[in-house]
Amino acid sequence: MGRVFITGAGRGLGLAFVKQCLERGDRVFAGVRRPEKAEQVQSLLAEYPEQLELVALDVTDADALEASWQQIREKTEVLDLLINNAGINSMSADAGGSAAHLRLGQLESDRILSMFNVNAIAPLMIAQRFIDLLEGSSSPRIVSISSWLGSLTKKSSGGNYSYCASKTALNMLMRCLAFDVLPKGIVSIVVNPGWVQTDMGGSRAKLTPEESVAGILNVVENLTETDAGRFLNWDGSEHAW
Ligand SMILES: NC(=O)c1ccc[n+]([C@@H]2O[C@H](COP(=O)([O-])OP(=O)(O)OC[C@H]3O[C@@H](n4cnc5c(N)ncnc54)[C@H](OP(=O)(O)O)[C@@H]3O)[C@@H](O)[C@H]2O)c1
């Protein structure tokens, strides 16, 4: 049994992580922006009252991050796995309109910076805050959900500035972190989940959230210290930086 904290747990990949971690017997702390609106996670509480706890967390809110640490620390001294999953793209409701992120001539610095905040900086701040709980685990892991769109090697067309660059930034920030936390025994990686059928990925996407998440959890199960800092696909294969 593991103790897992998942951000952006109310829908999409985050919700699939919650379900599969509960099914395998983990103690799950599900981070959601608005617990009262996270109906699908709320409905799991009845089935898993001992295993599941909702944690209010807008990942960009420093006070909420501190409160989330306090809430989790009251329930456990140790976390085994942190999954930095919350993210937005240019189509997300709170992105402020896609043109500000996509179209040369209409790009807006404040919109771009706020996407960097959610996708790149928040995962680092969350990891930093939870290192002390992770250190207590015999096999601590940090998994940050990145994207193939963050790959410099694969980028061969214009547009989609902020999402692509925010995931590239995430990759580097988490690679820096990976080598800092490895001496504590914490293995941190970034993962491309593939193209997944969620609100973000759309219905034409190739993978179901269940397939992607099962793959990622399998990858996490098999991580060793030699994997620290790597960029992997949901199926465990290497992704180009
Ligand atoms: N789907 C794909 O094909 C795909 C491909 C590559 C990478 N990814 C990455 O996979 C991760 C999950 O994406 P998804 O496909 O599940 O997207 P999604 O269906 O749009 O869900 C995004 C989740 O992130 C949460 N979130 C957004 N901003 C937040 C904030 N400031 N604080 C806390 N939570 C926040 C949302 O919460 P609310 O419900 O409160 O809005 C929601 O739970 C993201 O990092 C995404 O970039 C997805």
- Quaternary structure type: single chain
- Overall CATH class: Alpha Beta
Low-confidence parts = none
Rg to the nearest angstrom?
17 Å
Q: What fold name goes in the CATH topology slot?
A: Rossmann fold
Most strands sheet = 7 strands, parallel
Name the CATH homologous superfamily.
NAD(P)-binding Rossmann-like Domain
Shape: globular
Q: Helicity, in percent?
A: 40-55%
Name the bound molecules. NADP nicotinamide-adenine-dinucleotide phosphate
* CA distance, first residue to last residue: 33 Å
* Mean pLDDT metric: 97
Overall CATH architecture: 3-Layer(aba) Sandwich
Number of domains: 1
Strand content: 5-15%
SS summary, helix count: 7
Task: Give me the count of strands.
Answer: 7
Name the strands of the widest sheet in spatial order.
Answer: 3-2-1-4-5-6-7
What is the H/E string? EHEHEHEHHEHEHE
